[in-house]
C-alpha cells in the first residue's frame, strides 16, 4: 500500500511539476496524523478519518488526490489490523453491573462469571464441572463478593480486561488493581488485590439454596424428564431443589457445600429394568458433596459467610478452593482442608508462572488469525477471529473436568434477574433442557477440538461414554436379547434415559420401549462417537487409546447394528422400526445409519492387525456388505440424497440426508458424488443458521466458500442481547452461552481451511479470496500445518 501511495505521488509530480520533497513531507505528515487515529479506522469511522485528512490537507495547503488518499487509507487499514492474541483481549471501560455483564474464566474444571457492580464490588459465580445435585442438575457452588474500603471506585479510570494470553481477568480503578485467575494446574481460584494506598477487604459468600424449594413454572426447565418438563407425563410431578449447608463457627475460613441427601438414580434404574445393574453399581448422586473453601491471610470471620481484614494493607490474596467428593461430609471437609494446605504450600508466584506457561502452550497449539485489505472485509475477518478465539477460550475453561461440556450454558450460566423475557427472575442454576446430555448438541464442541489440537479436552466425553458402556451392554441384552450396545440420544451422565423420556408407568409396555417419540429409535450417538474416536486416533496415533477405548467401544456399537434388525429377503439389513434423527419419527432404512455404519466399519477395517484381528474384520466387512443401498430421491430430473428409503411423521428441523456430508464425510470436496451432494444441499428443507444447525459446516465440506463465509460471519456477529460478553451466544434453541452456536462456526472455519479423509488432507478447500490468514492447525498422522494465506495463495512454513 505504501508503494501504491508513492507511485501515485510520483505520477502527480510528473503531471503537475510539484516539488517531490514537499509532497513527501506532506505525505509523511498525513501518515503520522492518520496513524494517531488508527483506532478509528473501521467500517463505522472510515469516512470520518477520510474527512479529517482532507481538512488537514486544506489547512496545510497540501494537495492530495482521491487516488492517493485511498492508497493512504488502505495502508492504514492494514497497519491497524489485529494480528496478535493480545489484540483480542476483551476490554471494558464501565462496570458490568450484574451477571449479564460478566466475563467467563476457567481452568477446565472450575469456572467463574466475573463482573464489577456499580459500587465497585467484584462479584463472581463459582462453578464446577461435576457439581451434580440430587436431581442430576449441574449447579453453581455459590457467589462470592469482594469489597474494598475505603471505596476507591472511580468509573472514569475503570478498566476490566480479559487477558487471553495469561488466562486472567484484571480490574483496575482508583489506584486499585484486582486480578482474578483460576490456576490451570491446581484446583484453586485466586483473587489478588493491590492498592496504592492501604485498604481493607471484605469477602462475602452468597447462596440462594437456603431451603428446600419446589421447582415450578419455567424453573422446571432445569430438570428435563421430571416435574413439569417430561414427555411421558407419568413421572414425578413435584420435584425439589435441596438446601445447601455451611460449616459453622469458623475463625479464618468460609466453608459452604451441598450434600446430596437424595438421589433420582435408583428409581431411574428400576424404571428402566436395570435393577440388576444398580445392585452392583454405586449411586453416582447420593452423598455427593460439592462446595468450596475461602480463606485469605490476614482475614478473619465476622460471620460464617463473611471474612474481613484485620488491618489495612496494600495487598491481599483471597483463595477459593472448590472440591467434589462422594461420602461423608466430615471426610469431604478433611480432604478439602488437606488439599488447600498442600496448594498453599506452593509459592503463589511459582504457580502463576506455571499457570501462564500452560496458557501459552495452549494458545501455541493452534490458531487462526484472519485479516483483509478493505474495511468491510477487515471488520468481518476480525469478528470471525474474535469469535473463534473466545469459543476456544471457553472450551479450555470448561473442558478438562469430571464431566463433558454442557452444550446449554457450559459452566458459565448466569442468573436471569435482569433478563427481559419470559425467563426473568431465575437463579444461576437455571438452564433450559437441564440435567441430561443430548448427543446432537453435546458432540458439536468436540468435533472442533481435533483440528485445534485440543485432544486433552476430549477425554471427559470419551470417559463418560466408556463408563456407561457396561450399563448399555446390559440394557441391550435385557431389552432385545442380543449383544452389543446402544446409547440414548438424551442421556443422564451415568448412561440412562431421562425418566420422562423412557416413561414411568410400564404396565403392559415392553422393556426398552421408549415413550418419547423424538428419541424412541434415535441411537446415532454411539455410531457418530465411534467416528470421532477413529478421528482422534488418526490425529494422535495413540495406540493405547485405540486398545483401551476405541476398539472396545466401536466393536460393541457395530455388534448392536449387526444383530438388532433382521435381514430382508435380499439378505440386506432392514432398518425397521427406525427413525431418521429426531425429524422423521417413522423411517425405513434411514440414511444416517447406513452412511454411518459404512464409514465407521470401513475405517475399522483399516486398523492394524495388532488392534483388530481377522475375525473381527471379517464381521465388519460382512456388516458393510449387508447394508441396504444409499437412500436417494428424484427431484425433477435430479438425483438427490434422501433421509431414508421411506420416511414420515416429520417433527423437527434437521436435514438427515446431510449426515452424508457432516458428520460422516462420505461426500466432500475432491470426492466422487460432490455434485449430487451440492444439489441435495441446495434442495434441503432447512437452511437455518445458528445454534446447532450445521449448514455452515456442510457448506464448507461442499466447497461453497461464499455461503460458509456468510454463515460464519453471521454466527460470530450475534450473541445474546441480554449479555455483554461477545461470545455468550444464544439462547437459540437451548441456553446461553450456547456452546453449539460458537462451535459450529468454529468447525466450519476449520473446514474451510483444512479437510481430511483417511490419509488425504486438503488445504483451502473452501477459502474466500477476501480473507488472508495466519494459521496453525492439526491434521491426521500427528501432523501440524502452519502457514499463511494471502490473496488466495497458500504458503506453508518450511515449504516453498
Fold and architecture overview:
Keywords: Membrane, Transmembrane, Transmembrane helix. With 800 residues, the chain is of the alpha+beta class. The chain folds into three domains: 2-80; 87-346, Beta-galactosidase, Chain A, domain 5, CATH 2.70.98.50; 384-796, Glycosyltransferase (Alpha/alpha barrel), CATH 1.50.10.10. The chain has 20 helices and 30 strands. The chain has a 15-stranded antiparallel β-sheet that branches. Strand 29 (783-790) and strand 30 form a beta hairpin. The chain is globular. Mean pLDDT is 92; it is low at 1-50.
- Count the E strands: 30
Mean pLDDT: 92
Give the termini separation. 25 Å
What is the name of the CATH class of the largest domain? Mainly Alpha
Instruction: Please indicate the percent range of residues in DSSP E strands (runs of 2 or more).
Output: 15-25%
Domain DUF5703: 92-368
Domain Glycosyl hydrolase family 95 catalytic: 433-694
GO molecular function, one term: alpha-L-fucosidase activity
Transmembrane segments: 21-41
Amino acid at each position: 500500500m505504501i508503494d501504491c501511495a508513492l507511485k501515485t505521488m510520483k505520477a502527480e509530480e510528473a503531471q503537475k511539476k510539484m516539488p517531490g520533497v514537499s509532497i513527501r513531507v506532506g505525505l509523511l505528515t498525513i501518515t503520522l496524523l492518520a496513524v494517531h487515529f488508527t483506532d478509528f479506522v473501521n467500517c463505522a469511522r472510515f469516512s470520518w478519518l477520510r474527512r479529517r485528512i482532507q481538512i488537514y490537507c486544506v489547512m496545510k495547503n497540501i494537495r492530495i488526490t482521491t487516488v492517493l488518499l485511498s492508497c493512504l487509507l488502505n495502508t492504514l487499514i492494514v497497519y491497524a489490523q489485529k494480528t496478535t492474541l493480545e489484540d483480542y483481549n476483551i476490554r471494558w471501560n464501565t462496570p458490568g453491573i450484574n451477571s449479564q455483564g460478566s466475563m467467563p474464566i476457567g481452568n477446565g474444571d472450575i469456572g467463574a462469571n466475573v463482573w464489577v457492580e456499580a459500587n465497585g464490588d467484584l462479584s463472581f459465580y463459582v462453578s464446577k464441572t461435576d457439581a451434580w445435585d440430587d436431581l442430576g442438575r449441574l449447579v453453581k457452588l455459590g457467589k462470592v463478593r469482594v469489597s474494598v474500603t475505603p471505596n476507591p471506585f472511580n468509573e472514569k479510570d475503570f478498566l476490566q480486561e480479559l487477558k487471553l494470553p495469561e488466562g486472567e481477568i484484571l480490574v483496575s480503578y482508583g489506584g486499585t488493581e484486582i486480578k482474578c485467575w483460576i490456576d490451570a494446574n491446581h484446583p484453586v481460584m485466586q483473587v489478588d488485590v493491590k492498592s496504592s494506598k492501604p485498604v481493607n477487604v471484605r469477602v462475602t459468600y452468597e447462596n440462594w439454596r437456603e431451603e428446600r424449594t419446589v421447582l415450578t413454572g419455567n424453573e422446571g426447565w432445569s430438570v428435563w424428564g421430571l416435574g413439569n418438563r417430561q414427555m411421558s407425563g407419568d413421572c414425578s410431578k413435584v420435584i425439589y431443589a435441596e438446601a445447601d449447608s455451611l460449616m459453622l463457627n469458623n475463625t479464618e475460613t468460609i466453608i459452604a457445600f451441598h450434600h446430596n441427601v437424595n438421589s433420582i438414580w435408583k428409581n431411574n434404574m428400576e424404571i428402566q429394568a436395570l435393577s440388576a445393574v444398580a445392585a452392583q453399581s454405586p449411586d453416582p448422586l447420593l452423598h455427593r458433596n460439592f462446595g468450596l473453601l475461602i480463606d485469605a491471610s490476614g482475614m478473619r470471620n465476622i460471620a460464617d459467610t463473611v471474612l474481613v481484614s484485620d488491618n489495612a494493607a496494600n495487598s491481599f490474596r483471597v483463595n477459593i478452593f472448590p472440591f467434589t467428593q462422594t461420602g461423608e461430609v466430615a471426610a469431604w471437609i478433611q480432604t478439602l482442608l488437606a488439599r488447600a494446605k498442600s496448594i498453599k504450600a506452593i509459592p503463589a508466584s511459582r504457580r502463576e508462572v506455571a499457570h501462564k506457561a500452560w496458557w501459552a502452550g495452549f494458545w501455541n497449539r493452534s490458531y487462526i488469525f484472519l485479516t483483509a485489505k478493505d474495511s468491510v472485509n477487515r471488520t468481518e475477518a476480525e469478528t470471525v477471529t474474535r469469535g473463534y478465539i473466545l469459543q476456544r477460550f471457553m472450551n479450555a475453561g470448561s473442558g478438562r473436568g469430571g464431566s463433558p461440556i454442557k452444550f446449554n450454558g457450559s459452566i458459565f450460566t448466569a442468573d436471569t434477574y435482569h433478563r427481559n423475557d419470559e425467563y426473568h427472575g431465575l437463579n444461576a442454576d437455571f438452564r433450559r433442557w437441564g440435567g441430561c446430555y443430548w448427543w446432537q448438541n453435546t458432540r458439536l464442541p468436540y468435533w472442533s477440538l481435533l483440528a485445534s489440537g485440543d485432544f486433552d479436552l476430549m477425554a471427559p466425553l470419551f470417559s463418560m461414554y466408556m463408563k456407561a458402556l457396561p450399563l448399555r451392554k446390559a440394557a441391550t441384552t435385557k431389552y432385545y436379547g442380543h449383544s452389543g450396545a446402544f446409547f440414548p440420544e438424551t442421556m443422564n451422565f451415568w448412561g440412562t434415559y431421562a425418566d420422562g423420556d423412557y416413561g414411568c408407568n410400564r404396565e403392559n409396555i415392553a422393556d426398552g420401549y421408549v415413550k418419547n417419540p423424538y428419541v424412541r429409535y434415535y441411537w446415532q450417538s454411539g455410531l457418530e462417537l465411534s467416528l470421532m474416536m477413529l478421528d482422534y486416533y488418526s490425529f494422535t496415533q495413540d495406540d493405547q487409546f485405540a486398545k483401551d477405548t476405541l476398539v472396545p467401544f466401536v466393536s460393541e456399537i457395530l455388534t448392536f447394528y449387526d444383530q438388532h434388525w433382521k435381514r430382508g429377503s435380499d439378505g440386506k439389513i432392514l432398518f425397521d422400526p427406525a427413525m431418521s434423527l429426531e425429524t422423521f419419527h417413522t423411517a425405513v432404512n434411514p440414511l444416517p445409519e447406513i452412511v454411518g455404519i459404512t464409514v465407521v466399519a470401513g475405517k475399522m477395517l483399516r486398523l492394524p492387525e495388532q488392534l483388530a484381528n481377522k475375525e473381527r474384520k471379517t464381521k465388519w466387512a460382512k456388516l458393510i456388505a449387508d447394508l441396504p443401498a444409499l437412500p436417494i430421491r428424484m427431484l425433477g430430473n435430479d438425483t438427490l440424497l434422501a433421509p431414508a428409503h421411506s420416511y414420515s411423521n416429520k417433527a423437527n428441523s434437521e436435514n438427515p440426508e446431510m449426515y452424508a456430508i457432516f458428520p460422516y464425510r462420505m461426500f466432500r470436496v475432491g470426492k466422487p458424488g460432490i455434485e449430487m451432494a451440492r444439489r441435495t444441499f441446495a434442495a434441503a428443507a432447512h437452511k437455518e443458521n445458528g445454534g446447532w444447525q450445521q449448514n455452515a459446516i456442510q457448506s464448507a465440506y461442499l466447497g461453497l466458500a461464499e455461503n460458509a463465509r456468510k454463515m460464519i460471519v453471521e454466527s460470530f456477529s450475534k450473541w445474546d442481547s441480554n449479555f455483554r460478553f461477545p461470545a455468550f451466544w444464544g439462547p437459540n434453541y437451548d441456553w446461553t452461552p450456547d456452546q453449539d452456536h460458537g462451535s459450529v462456526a468454529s468447525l466450519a472455519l476449520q473446514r474451510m481451511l483444512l479437510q481430511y479423509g483417511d490419509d488425504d488432507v486438503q488445504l483451502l478447500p473452501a477459502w474466500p479470496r477476501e480473507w488472508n490468514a495466519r494459521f496453525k492447525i492439526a491434521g491426521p498422522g500427528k501432523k501440524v500445518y502452519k502457514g499463511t494465506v494471502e490473496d488466495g495463495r497458500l504458503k506453508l512454513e518450511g515449504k516453498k
